[in-house]
Amino acid sequence: MTMYERLLEREAAGRRLGIGLVGAGKFGSMFLAQARRTPGLHVVGVADLAPARARENLRRTGWPEERIAAHSLGDAADHGTTWVGDDPLAVITHPAVDVVIDATGHPPAGIAHALGAIANGKHIIMVTVEADVLAGPLLARKASRAGVVYSLAYGDQPALIIEQVEWARTSGFEVVAAGKGTKYLPEYHRSTPDTVWSHYGINADQARAGGLNPQMFNSFIDGTKSAIELAAVANATGLLPAPDGLRFPPCAVEDLAEVLRPAAQGGMLHHKGQVEVVSSVARDGAPVPRSLRWGVYVTFEAPSDYVARCFAEYGLVADSSGRYAALYRPSHLVGLELGVSVASVGIRGEPTGAPTAFRGDVVAVAKRNLAAGTVLDGEGGFTVWGRLLPATESLRLGALPIGLAHGVAIREGVAAGAVVRWSDVAVDERADHVRVRREMETVVGAGDKSGGRV
Length: 454
Hints:
36% of the residues lie in helices and 18% in strands. It is α/β, with parallel strands linked by helices.
């Protein structure tokens, strides 16, 4: 039976999968818009720091008033309605919940909710990819040992990239590169929430009218979000970053196989089996026609002349040699597709991507000269941006993970462009998420120990 058929079967038998959603912002709301239309699912509870906003988002996404429970989680579980409140632990621990989704976007919260779900025998879908990059390899290991599934979120680009990598490998191809598109120029690394909207082509008034968060959107522009997402892919697939991080080559979809092949064959890759992001604009700022700004891709190699001829016969996007080809998806639908993860985890017991080793890390880099006493404001802020590095190099440098570069003060000055190190800041080593990160570095260590082929 297909997953959809099994969802229909559950619906008919009254055995719907119980879902607990923590965080009802944009991603969570997009999931809610489709969850009420998906058979076999019951959103038992939604926990959010602003319950009134969460209820309004339920209404905005089409939920009828009678489906929003006004009383207890127990009532929601018994009557097929959805409870809304501000207590994530109540949702995570409720016996009617089978799958917990963390969509908070806050790494310390994501780690705490994952640990809570694992301790209570619940599957966990980690939408907060920042938490996954900070400690996901350890969380996935803990989940496996507890007999539950830890999964990345389908609809977000990392899981879609991982799906393409799995397709290529299962088809017998060697993966040469995989990644996503974005809009990138080198000067964007210095972008702040005050300058971000000019890069998007809108003004601050338009952004406010649309309810857009400048710091969140700035993390997409300054390169941090791309680094985080590609670190998650590296940790899940065995593909590795280049030693100096992402290079963001401008590239049209027709040129993916030409550009994303090894340098020895005329491409730009440091090595076969690399994660990389392509830019939708050339270095002079001109738009790249038919870019992959919203999409994902994989490039792979023909193992024989026969297969190379098949590439040509079936119209694949190939390079000039005909031996390297690309498959791409031009867009992604974020939370609207999250039901695929819910069904895969809850019905098949399989993740839609999960880390298997600590291979890639995202480290904090100073956007400007940071004087002693400067308090870092984290991803997308005014002080630091996130650079993707091999995990071995991050640990060698003692680099501060971007997920910990928030609310901590600089001890001594850090020059613009320099990597911020643990020793440069005053970190509370007693904080739970810091202890979990330290545990991952010690228990999991850095490097590829999975034995997976690239």
